[in-house]
UniProtKB/TrEMBL annotation:
Top-level taxon: Bacteria
One GO MF term attached to the UniProt entry: kinase activity
All copies of domain Aminoglycoside phosphotransferase, residue ranges: 41-204
Pfam families to which the protein is assigned, alphabetical: APH (PF01636)
InterPro entries tied to this protein: AGP_Transferase, Aminoglycoside_PTrfase, Kinase-like_dom_sf
Protein name: Aminoglycoside phosphotransferase (APT) family kinase protein
Keyword Kinase: yes
Keywords assigned by UniProt, alphabetized: Kinase, Transferase
């Protein structure tokens, strides 16, 4: 019998791998509904749905390997990163899905959330006050009007699979929906700034780099306390706190 591998697990959901099958366990039925619906609409390769028995969704494994992970080295070539950029552009140009996504928060709501999070980070001493202040200033550039696009909403490099220089699939669509395209690009290149030029070469259109940098700061500021509370380490080399230090 195949061993059970815990891919990721926290209080909100868990993903297990058994052989060539991924089992996603999520108590939030609406979030699972989003994942299944959006995968059927996305114009890029996605995992095949094998079966669904709430709260479990079974997906077929994808060919290839991921481009890497936050805090670790990239395993992909420049051409693979460019191919990922082209796939992301194809997604962003697709007809809009019928639901808002994680990347679709209003500017006002996001600013309020950022202000509250920065205040908490300062008062609990989790991060140096000057580091929070400087990154809060950098993050301002992300708080601007944007045109809605079909976004993934959690486009970490660990969610993109490649075989050679070809994208074989993108996983974890539960945060997808209408949103800011630059949020996806920033999430994908977070902690791997050295490949930003490759991604944008594949994406094929001019991008405001200040907004990408702003999203790096904003996403990291909003993530640190959640990650600590759920057993992850944003202070590990190359992870969120290092991203904040690089922006400051």
């Amino acid at each position: 019998m195949d061993e059970v591998e815990v891919v990721v697990a926290h209080s909100e959901r868990a993903t297990l791998r058994v052989g060539d099958v991924f089992l996603k366990v999520d108590a939030d039925q609406a979030r699972m509904d989003v994942e299944v619906e959006v995968m059927s609409l996305a114009p890029v390769p996605t995992p095949k749905v094998l079966w669904r028995r709430p709260p479990v969704l079974a997906l077929a494994a994808l060919e290839g390997t991921t481009l890497g992970r936050l805090g670790g080295p990239s395993t992909g070539s420049s051409a693979a990163w460019a191919a990922a950029g082209a796939a992301i552009r194809k997604l962003h140009e697709a007809p809009l899905p019928p639901l808002p996504g994680r990347a679709g928060q209003s500017t006002a709501a996001l600013a309020a959330k950022l202000d509250a999070e920065c205040e908490l980070l300062g008062t609990n001493g989790l991060l140096p006050a000057d580091l929070v202040t400087r990154n809060r200033r950098v993050a301002e550039a992300a708080l601007r009007p944007w045109t809605p696009a079909f976004t993934h909403g959690d486009l970490q490099i660990a969610h993109v699979f490649v075989d050679g220089d070809e994208v074989t699939g993108i996983i974890d669509w539960s945060e997808a929906g209408r949103g800011d395209a630059l949020y996806d690009l920033a999430t994908f290149t977070l902690g791997h700034e050295e490949h930003l030029a490759d991604v944008l070469a594949g994406y094929g259109t001019d991008i405001d780099l200040d907004v990408i940098h702003a999203w790096w700061s904003l996403r990291s500021l909003l993530s640190v306390r959640w990650l600590v509370a759920h057993g992850f380490d944003p202070f590990a080399p190359g992870c969120e706190v290092d991203v904040l230090r690089s922006r400051a």
